[in-house]
Design goal:
Keywords: Amino-acid biosynthesis, Aromatic amino acid biosynthesis, Lyase, Phenylalanine biosynthesis. The chain has helices at 13-21, 33-42, 61-69, 105-110, 112-118, 130-137, 151-157, 207-216, 250-262, 288-302; strands at residues 3-7, 26-30, 47-54, 58-59, 74-82, 86-89, 100-103, 123-126, 146-149, 160-164, 173-180, 192-199, 222-229, 237-244, 265-273. It contains 10 helices and 15 strands. It is elongated, with a radius of gyration of 22 Å. It is of the alpha/beta class and 306 residues long. It folds into 3 domains: 1-82 and 173-183, 3-Layer(aba) Sandwich (D-Maltodextrin-Binding Protein, domain 2); 86-164, D-Maltodextrin-Binding Protein, domain 2, CATH 3.40.190; 185-306, ACT domain (Alpha-Beta Plaits, 2-Layer Sandwich). Bound molecules: 3-phenylpyruvic acid. Residues 7, 12-14, 51, 83, 104, 106-107, 129-131, 174 line the site of 3-phenylpyruvic acid.
Length: 306
């Protein structure tokens, strides 16, 4: 039975994602995303389940930076989890008396409208996780009046639900990924996604266009592009890409070899089945057979067979 680290404690959205991705896995709750990834790196766990992207907020910075800079890990699976938030407090708490709200920053951001409308005088305080906030609020004498977390976390820690469905949008989805230490890749399924980090060799006009061209001319459709600061000063960025296809696909292999040739560094983060099972539309001339035919043609003309 594999052991997987995740952002704990019990009752987080990460745990919900883990249960979908690996229902039989042993669960190792970690204090934060970095600790969960380190547990996988050190071999204390066989892998980790961490949030990568949210449909409202975009990429989760800690995860993106860990995957870019830390000891290499590979993404092997993903899940799209609809997230629904509740306002949870100790039994007996009146909503009008809530002055300090504790939750994970992603939850606080996604419930900004509710807090501004219903609790305009309350302050929000960042917690390591939604369930961690619920656990803390449940303690007698806690400095926090309420937590924002999943309903199930409230039930688990003995809190009452003062309001439900408090997210600014009802259709918010978080994409969680399962990562492992480097290992053989999942087989191509025809509906795959590949993730990559690219560091530019130097800053020059058109550098971003050059990267994008490698994808465009091979008919590779991007599903996410995000710049993150390198930390080397204002204006210095590296790039995260997610795109359709598997590294075993000729068009994907050619695109990322192209990036490897022209960029300072390319870190491959994995090719894995898409949770939504959507297959890419293959543009004319970019199927595996087209690349093989073109390679054959090139080989023939190189030997004078015109
Ligand atoms: O804190 C949690 O429960 C998490 O899993 C992180 C998170 C927080 C808010 C939305 C999605 C994921």
């Amino acid at each position: 039975m594999p052991k997987l680290a995740y952002l704990g404690p019990e009752g987080t959205f990460a745990e919900e994602a883990l249960r979908i991705l690996a229902p039989d896995a042993e669960r190792l709750p970690s204090a934060n995303v970095s600790a969960a990834l380190d547990a996988a790196r050190r071999g204390e766990a066989d892998g980790a389940v961490v949030p990568l992207e949210n449909s409202l907020e975009g990429g989760i910075a800690t995860t993106l930076d860990e995957l870019a800079w830390g000891e290499p890990l590979l993404i092997t699976a993903e899940v799209l989890l609809p997230v629904e938030f509740s306002l949870l407090a100790r039994p007996g708490t009146e909503i009008g008396n809530i002055k300090r709200i504790f939750s994970h920053p992603a939850a606080l951001t996604q419930c900004r409208g509710f807090v501004a409308r219903e609790l305009p005088d309350a302050v929000t305080i960042a917690a390591p996780s939604t369930a961690g906030a619920a656990q803390e609020v449940a303690l007698p004498g806690s400095p926090y009046d309420a937590a924002i977390a999943a309903r199930i976390a409230g039930e688990h820690y003995g809190l009452v639900e003062l309001a439900s469905g408090i997210g600014d949008r009802s259709d918010t989805v978080t994409r969680f990924v399962h990562v492992t230490r480097p290992a053989p890749l999942p087989e191509p399924t025809g509906a795959d996604r590949t993730s990559l980090v690219v560091f530019l060799s130097d800053d020059h006009p058109g550098a971003l266009l050059e990267m994008l061209t490698e994808f465009a001319v091979r008919g590779v459709n991007l599903t996410r592009i995000e710049s993150r600061p390198t930390g080397d000063g204002i204006g210095r960025y590296f790039f995260h890409f997610d795109f359709e296809g598997h590294v075993a696909d000729a068009r994907v292999g050619e695109a990322i070899s192209g990036l490897h040739r022209v960029c300072a560094d390319v870190r491959f983060l994995g090719s894995y089945p898409r949770a939504d099972r959507l297959s890419p539309q293959i543009k004319r001339g970019t199927a595996d057979a087209d690349f093989a035919e073109a390679a054959g043609w090139l080989a023939r003309i190189r030997t004078g067979q015109v």
